[in-house]
Each structure stands twice: as C-alpha cells, then as structure tokens.
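Hello forum,

I keep getting stuck at the same step: I have a sequence, I want structure tokens, and every attempt I make locally crashes halfway through. Rather than fight my setup again tonight, could one of you with a working pipeline run this one for me? It's a single chain of 355 residues.
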Amino acid sequence: MKIVYVLFKEADEMKYKISVIIPVYNVAMYLSKCIDSVINQTYKNLEIVLVEDGSSDDSGEICDYYALQDSRIKVIHKDNGGLSDARNIGLDLATGDYISFIDSDDYIHQTFYDVLVNLITINNADIAQCDFLKIYEDNNCHNIWGSKQNNENSCEITILNNIAALNNLYHQNCVSNVVVWNKIYKRNLFSDIRFPKGKIHEDEFTTYKLLYKSTKVVITSNRLYYYLQRPNSIMGREFNTKRLDVLEAYSAQISFYETNNLFELKIYAIEKLEGLLREFMIEVLKSNIEDKEQTFLYLVYYYRNAYHLFINYMDVSIIKKFLMELFHFSPIYVVRVLCKLLDFRKSLLKGSKTT
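Reply #2:
Ran it on my machine without issues. Output:
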C-alpha cells in the first residue's frame, strides 16, 4: 500500500467521457436533487443514462423533463426488473471512457467527477474511489469515517494494486470499498461483468470481480458522495429475507478465490460468511417475518453445510471454536438459546460503551 498527497490538476480538456448510469424507480421525491447534482458538475463531458425501471409515481415524467433540458441525458423506459437489471441496461448502452453509477435518491458534490477523473488519469488507475457521507431525511448528515473536510489540497490518497484492494473489502471502511456508487471505472472492466438480476446486495456479487480485473485502484479520503438513508428501503426496514442474498454472494466469492488461488482472501470471505450466518439467525429470531421458523432452520442447516469451511480454514480461539461446534452439533433448541445469549451479550457490550 502506498499513501501520497497530491494537489489536483485539471483533467486534460475534459477529453474523457464518463457514462453516468442512474437507475430510477419510484423516487420522484428525490430524483431532481440527484439529477441536478450530476448535470451541474464542474466536469462537463458526461453521458447521463436514466434507466426508468417501470415506476408507478412521477419519476418517468421527471426523467423526460430533464432530457428536454440537457442534451447529455438519455432516458430509457422499461418494465420493472430491479436495480441490477437497470444497471446492466445502462452498461449495454454506455459509450463513455469511464463508467459511474449513481443511485437516484443520492446526490454528489459538484467536483465529484473532476476529482475522480484526475485521480484515475494522473495515477494511471483503473478505478478511482472517494469517501461518502450518510445523509438522513431530517437533513442531518453524519460522517461515519471521521472528521476530515473536503480539502482537495490536503486529502489522503491511497494507491492499491488489485490484491490490496480486495483485502480492503474485508477490513477498514468495508462499506465504502464494496459499494459501486462512490467510484468511477474504466469501461473495459465491464466487458464480461454484469450485476445479478433479481438479487439485492448486488455490489457484493460484483465489486470483487472488478477489483480483481484492475491493476491499480486509487482512493481519496474526500467525502464527495451523499448517501441518503431511507427508513422505508429494503436495507432500512426490519429484517427481510431478501437480505439473505448476501450469503450467496459470499459463497460465490469463496469459490472465486479458490479458483484463482487467492487463499488468504478465501479465508476472509469464509470468516465473513460465518459471522453473517450467526448474525442472521439472531435477527430472524427477533423478527416478525411470517416464515420465521423455516428461515431460522434454513440458516442453521446452511451453517452446518458450510461448517467444514469454518473449522478447516478459520484460525480462531478455543472459545470461538467451541461456539462453532455448538452451532454445528447442538439440537435446534440449543442453537436458539445460543443466539439469544449472544444477542444479550451484544446488548450488554453496546450498553457498556455508551456509559
């Protein structure tokens, strides 16, 4: 890993075109702010692809209005197919040198593309990434990664090769590293990569493949992407079984690393899968979902089928190993008790940190 400090320069006459892909579905309340933040960028050489995914509100009309105002905007209206499907259609239509994805309820700093294009070109990188702010609907913003300001002259720049960037997926600032929307990419990275249709946690299915194909990733600590927290989103609501898609994503990562002889990364993905399974068991028991018992049993047996990975690859303490064995060998009612005890312990630890 190499850390440097740079003074940003203007990109060479904005010669590189960026295809900005914005999937749009029932976000009429937020859409104008999103689009305005893109069309008002200091970097002007943009192709803006609005993929309207069968909205039932006024989102489609808003897209068409903006297309009349700005010739850089293309609008595609389609039947609802989900976020991944909309992104894939945008990719198929994109003609830019670089690709960017912006979620239609979020927005970006006016220098978002200027900064990232400079980073990617000056450092001859394949991917450029910035940090982000969480924005809540009460208009309060929360910086989850510290208190650095958007100071382009003193920001921290980190340059990574593909393996170091993959390691970051399982370590520091994991959310910032795994999501696709705070980055720009050389378009050729997507030559054989698409998002998984019908899945959520689509970034966990995709980002690791993009990082692996890259030779260099450059990251700025500047917080240039504003990530809206909506309580009615899938991730914002109470437990939903769609969230279990992430288990498939991590299983796919394990297989990918095995195929490519990346054994340390395979271990990290295995550790993540084991922790998620226990976490989901606890969440299911606390939830009010209709198929609660069936979902809990599914997770228990998923854990037991993957136990050979956990016990053979994870370097854990004797206590953690004993806990894993309890999840594997105990009767179901004992697993339930274990989950409740672990949740109680977590609550106690959380409470002690706030006092």
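The two ends are 37 Å apart (CA to CA). If your local run keeps crashing, start a new thread with the error log.
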